[in-house]
Amino acid sequence: MEPDLHARLAAEIAARRDSLIALTQDLIRIPTLNPPGRHYREICDYLSDRLSAQGYVTALVRAEGSPGDSDAWPRWNMVARRDGARPGECVHFNSHHDVVEVGHGWTRDPFGGELDGDRIYGRGACDMKGGLAASIIAAEAFVAVCPDFAGAIEISATADEESGGYGGVAYLAEQGWFDPDRVQHVLIPEPLHKDRICLGHRGVWWAEVETKGRIAHGSMPFLGDSAIRHMGAVLEEIERKLYPLLATKRTAMPVVPEGARQSTLNINSIHGGEAEAEPGFTGLPAPCVADRCRIVIDRRFLIEEDLPAVKAEVTGLLDGLKAERPGFDYSLRDLFEVRPVMTAADAPVVRSTAAAIERVLGRVAEHVVSPGTYDQKHIDRIGRMKNCIAYGPGLLHLAHQPDEWVGVQDMADSALVMALVLADLLG
Ligand SMILES: [Zn+2]
DSSP class of residue 327? Predict the structure, then answer.
């Protein structure tokens, strides 16, 4: 890389500071709430207009038939591509444009995009409209400095990441948008912070376990069979056997926070017996033995584990109870599963981003893995694209919180890192 390239890119980013702020504010002011999926078309049109004016060829893609897609709430995605002057590789920045519900506790307008000092406030500020804005400004600065670049830049804004990504990246990947012959490097500007490279995430298995019982009058429980007592036995086995086992399963994945550097299990919900009373109902419950009890488990697993073995731990425990506990019967229903992914630390996009972080921030980039999943799962599994990371401005712990904000300087620093990555890979 020529020595003054860094300085020229830095000057172009600095000259666009107001534009970076205004772009972030504009994006926050389009309230793309998911669910149900509001204003998706509006944000895609906004981005498509901005990028086509800069020479990008843009496509609006509706994920027809995907979960949640309807004429009332269509799942719109936007992909923009700008080809360089010479053949080369394609660097793709993928951001989700949806945001989660506002929730309570705000002291700022969640869709005001208010600038206060170095911070821009609003739902989606850090997760992840700030990252999307940073990637657009990075590409602008890079093209200004290197108009004759090789290869291509792509910028996408996709739907539904917050609800699994099926109307967004998964759909695009199925349609071939992330095939390795058209895209060679992917950066997802999720708010992992400007000095960290996220290589991937742990795996997920959600399942519903139901225990069976037999209804009877609550005054003569011996005439029935309580599904809740059976579930109690299941929970006891989980406490006694499964949690200690999971605590021994440590991973070499650099998961942050540290507590997630092992297998974990959460019991998301438990329901059994008579349904809870409607709000406003003032009567008493009826006395019945519960004939059904259900829990939903959320197991996060490691790259060192395989999913059939993870499932077998739970079914083994349930089958054990079935063998020894009179009347015990259960069913298990798979709800959702995601394989763990981890891009190699020596993959080209990782090396390039690490070098750029060191140049911009003067410190060694930290390599991390996310405890939960994000759209990289679809790019990896459906798109078969292994050279993919998450890298972007913002603090992860602010995501989905009241008074969410993103720092302007953090966005500017990340944009410079992204511009240097473009210069390195496409220069
Ligand atoms: Zn996000």
Answer: T
Distance 113 CA to ligand 1 centre (A): 17
- Please tell me the distance between residue 305's alpha carbon and the centre of ligand 1 in angstroms: 26
Residues 6 or more apart in contact with residue 150 via CB below 8 angstroms: 84, 85, 86, 87, 88, 89, 426, 427
In tens, the pLDDT along 226-280 reads 999 999 999 999 999 999 999 999 999 999 999 999 999 999 999 999 998 899 9
Residue in 73, 6, 51, 5 with CA at minimum distance from that of residue 358: 6
The rounded distance, in Å, linking the Cα atoms of 387 and 260 is 24
Q: Taking the complete model, does pTM exceed 0.85, yes or no?
A: yes
User: Other CB atoms closer than 10 Å to residue 2's CB: what's the count?
Assistant: 8
> Cα of 184 to ligand 1 centre, how many Å?
22
Instruction: Report the separation in Å between the CA atom of 190 and the middle of ligand 1, taken as the mean of its atom positions.
Output: 5
pLDDT digits (tens, 9 = 90+) for 126-148: 999 999 999 999 999 999 999 99
1 pLDDT exceeds 70? no
Q: H or E element: which one contains 226? A: none
Q: How many angstroms separate the alpha carbon of residue 170 from the centre of ligand 1? A: 15
Tell me the CA–centroid distance for residue 424 and ligand 1, in Å: 26
